[in-house]
Amino acid sequence: MGVGCTIVHHVAAFVQIALAVAIAVIVGIKLFRVDVSGDGEDPTVTSTCLLGEDYNNENLCVYVFAVVGVSVLVSFVISLVQCCTCHLCGLGAILDTIFAAAGTAWWIIASSIVTKNSNDSDLPEDGWRRTTVALMWTEVGVFAVLLISSVIRPCLRD
C-alpha cells in the first residue's frame, strides 16, 4: 500500500506541473493578445485579456501567469532542495505536506478569482476560457491528492 501511495504522489506532482504549463499556454496563446501598431519610432502596444469581464483589462491574464509561475517555481525549488539534501534529511514528508496544503489553498483562491471574473459569455473564446477555469479547478484536486498522499504516506511505511 505504501508503494502505491508513493507512486500516486509522484504522478500527482508531475500532473500538477503539466496542468500549470497547460494553463499558461492556453492563456498565452488563446486568451491574451498583444497588438503593436504604428511606425517603428513610436509604436503603440495594446494588450487584451479574453479571460475576464473587462475586455481591455489584461490584469486577470497577468494574474494567471503569476499564479502558474509561482506554483511551478516553488515545485521546482522544493524538488531541487529535497534532491540535494537527501529528502531534507528525513524531513521531506513535512515539506511535502506544507507545500501541498499551501498549493491547495493557492489554487483554490486563484480558481475562485478567475471563475468569478470569467463568467462573461459576451467575450470571444468562451471554450478556452471554460477550459482554463476547469484546468485551474483540476489543479485544486491534484494538490488535494498531493496533500492526502503526503499525510498518509508516512503512516504506511513499515
Helix/strand order, N-terminal first: HEEHHHH
Q: Low-confidence parts lasting 5 or more residues at pLDDT below 50?
A: none
CATH arch. level architecture: Up-down Bundle
**What is the C-level CATH assignment?**
Mainly Alpha
- Count of domains: 1
Largest sheet: 2 strands, antiparallel
Mean pLDDT: 84
Rg, alpha carbons: 19 Å
Amino- and carboxy-terminal Cα gap? 10 Å
Briefly note the CATH topology name: Butyryl-CoA Dehydrogenase, subunit A, domain 3
Classify the secondary structure makeup into a structural class: mainly alpha
> What is the general shape?
elongated
Strand order of the largest sheet: 1-2
| DSSP summary, beta strand count | 2
Helix content: over 70%
The percent range for strand residues is 5-15%
Counted by DSSP, the helix tally is 5
Transmembrane segments: 7-29, 62-81, 93-114, 134-152
Protein name: MARVEL domain-containing protein
Keywords: Membrane, Transmembrane, Transmembrane helix
How would you characterize the overall build of this protein?
- With 158 residues, this protein is mainly alpha-helical.
- It has a single domain (2-156), classed as Up-down Bundle (Butyryl-CoA Dehydrogenase, subunit A, domain 3), CATH 1.20.140.
- Helices cover 74% and strands 8% of the residues.
- It contains five helices and two strands.
- It has helices spanning 2-31, 59-84, 86-89, 92-117, 126-156; strands at 32-37, 44-49.
- Strands 1-2 form a two-stranded antiparallel sheet.
- A hairpin with a 6-residue loop joins strand 1 (32-37) and strand 2.
- Helix 1 (2-31) runs antiparallel to helix 2, helix 2 runs antiparallel to helix 4 (92-117) and helix 4 packs antiparallel against helix 5 (126-156).
- The longest helix has 31 residues, at 126-156.
- The model has no long low-confidence stretch (mean pLDDT 84).
